């Protein structure tokens, strides 16, 4: 018996989790459950991260969490427990599989176009850090972290998974043409990792083009790997291709802890009515059984589920409306009644159970992920983000007075568009500029030099934020303003 942690969640969570566990019990899945307290009602009890310390301890001990959807209380300043769980336990890869299911009609299934796409979404970084500030009353800033070690973890996982799956193609979705440094880093790591997998056809597609291609030619794609926000959007798009969120399972994979859940939320509009579709959570559970090496249980349940769908048995949110729909419990019972049957299309071959690869072990301290040494790094300037509603030339004249003997004022930009020394009067301005100073005559700069300039400039302006301009060897580690 393998012990796992189970959190039923909020809204439809308990109904669909009960249905799935009923199916697991009927299939005699060799799992034992430790039920843990997580979700909205735990927030309401005063636990600000949405889980009790006992829940955290149990999950960290067992290494596997099977969870229902959880509600994030609105407007109370609390963060989503779903995102907290993924980030706290470094489940860096969010794997979502989208397959044509016979019995779930879509435009593609009707046209005979098969879909089998796995989206691997980076799960920790990007704007999901939720690090946001108002710089002025008019200007909000979100920090977007893309890191080399973080990208490496998720991209390596995606290639390994694609190889195991026998995928033909692995595609990186990105926007590196615009975000050259952040998405550029993700794409660079993708091609570095690709060198170790010559058997896979690795390519990249700009994310807007990817969306268009996914809806016109979804059968061309196999495994797609993306940064967090783009991956979130693209995976919901893919859910739409195969029939909606009711059929979208998800696994959050880390080196120590893994979380299995459906993509959909708590569906408050239908909660408590016993009419929700448990398929996405059941598919997530089947993914968990595969992960645990419990292949026989996984195949038995999946074939029964596919048979049930193919047979036209459905909950109210999909299927043939002329046939009466089943409620959540009846749907689970229908799956159980179909154990041992195989669907005409897409049947899974029986597999032997595999010994679980023990990835979960106790950590003594927080792992530090560092990939490069910093010896050839130098400071060559600084960007100050200042609040001002003055015209660019007036700001330039004031800033020039602060440049002193170590700095030169290089340019001024507003919302990333250069407005000084050259620019256009047609560029609309907001009350926050970026003034860029660089080292005079390429002299080396220190942080103390930058602080001296900071103090001097602060006599004239409120400095909302600042960034060092760095060179890594001969490589510029900052972007140029539009028009610079
Ligand atoms: P939602 O996914 O809960 O609902 C969207 C629509 O899909 C609703 O009409 C709902 O009835 C329907 N739906 C969802 N799952 C269904 C199912 N299994 N069977 C039949 N119909 C289903 O998204 P929404 O309304 O944006 O979010 C509601 C709450 O869920 C929010 O508090 C949100 O923060 C939370 N949420 C939690 C997630 C998680 O725990 N991983 C993921 C997404 C949202």
Would you write up a description of this structure?
The chain is an alpha/beta fold. It has 14 helices and 18 strands. The chain folds into three domains: 1-89 and 255-372, Isopropylmalate Dehydrogenase; 93-253, Isopropylmalate Dehydrogenase; 377-476, 2-Layer Sandwich (Alpha-Beta Plaits). Helices cover 32% and strands 22% of the residues. The chain has a ten-stranded mixed sheet, with helices on both faces. A six-stranded antiparallel sheet has the order 15-14-16-13-17-18, covered by helices on one side. The chain has a two-stranded antiparallel ribbon with strand order 6-7. The longest helix is centred in the N-terminal third of the chain and has 18 residues, at 148-165. The model has no long low-confidence stretch (mean pLDDT 93). The structure holds 1,4-dihydronicotinamide adenine dinucleotide. It is an enzyme of class 1 (oxidoreductase). Catalyzes the oxidative decarboxylation of isocitrate to 2-oxoglutarate and carbon dioxide with the concomitant reduction of NADP(+).
